[in-house]
Amino acid sequence: MTEDAAAPDLRASDADRERVAEILRDALAEGRLDMEEFDERLDATYKARTYGELTPITRDLPDQGAVVPAVSLTKEPARQGSWSDRIVGGDETGTSSWAVAVMSGFQRRGRWTAPRRFNCFTFWGGGEIDLRDAYFVDREVVINAVAIMGGVQVTVPPGVEVVVRGIGIMGGFDHREEGVPGDPGAPRVIVTGFAFWGVVGVERKLPRAERQRLREERRREKLFSHFKTAAANWKQAPRTTDPGPHSGPAGSLQPPFQPLRRLRSGVRGGAPGTGRVGGGGGENLPSAPYNRAGAPPFRSRGSNTSPIRANPLSLGCR
Question: Within a domain: residue 250?
C-alpha cells in the first residue's frame, strides 16, 4: 500500500476496508490472530476513515500473495534413517535369541537387536515380537515359532518383506502380509514353525513416533479447516447499515437475538395497570388485570382468599 503510506490523510473506500478485513480473516484462519484480536481489529477496520487508520491494523501481518517462511512450531519425532543404519551386524544372537511361555507370555519390543534366528515356544500362552523399532544383525531374520494351544504375534514395520512358511494343524499362520515387496536395502523377515491348536499372526504397523506425527498433522489440518469455515461464516454474516437503539454501530454484526433484546427493553419500560409491557405491536406480554386501587384483585373460594399470582415481569417490576 505505497499510495496509502504516501497519503495517509486520504479517505478510505469500502473496498479498502474489505481488503483489510480479508487479510484479517486469512490471519485468523492461519492462527496468526485469536478471536479477541480479530474482533478488535475488525471493529477498527470498519470504523477507519483514512488510509492512515487502516495501515497499522495489518502492519504485522503478511499481505495476500506474500511469501512467508514455513516454520513448524511443534516438536516432531525424529525421522527414521535409512535401513542401512538399522542393520548393525555384530553378534549373531543379538539382544535375545529365544523365548518360552508356558501358561504365561513374553514380549520383545522397543529398541532391541533381532538376531539372525529367533526361536520361541508357547504352550497355553502368548508371545509378542515387535520389530518396528528394532535393529537387525543381518538383512535376513528367521523367526521360528511353535505354538501349541497358544499364539505368537509378529509385528513388522512398512517396507519390510515378509515370507511365511509355517505348518498348522487345527491352527494356522497368517499369510496376509506375504507378497508385499520391500524397500531397497530393507531386511527380510521369514516366519516359520508349527502351530497345533494355535495361531501365529503377522501384521504390518507404523512405528509409534510416525503414528503420532501423522495424528498431529491430521489434527492441524482439521483445526485449519475449522478456522477457514469460521472465517467464511464471519464474512457472510449480515451487518447493520442503519444503527438503531438496540444495535451496534454501522458495519458491526447483526445480533442474532435482536427481537429478544427489544422485548426485554420493553419489559423494563412497561407501566402497571395498562396490560402492556412497553415496546409495541406483538411485543406485548399478557398481564393480570388491576383494580382501580392499583392492587391485584382477590378471588374468593369459600373462606380462603388469596391474591392472583402474577409474573413479576407482567407487573412492570425489574
Answer: no
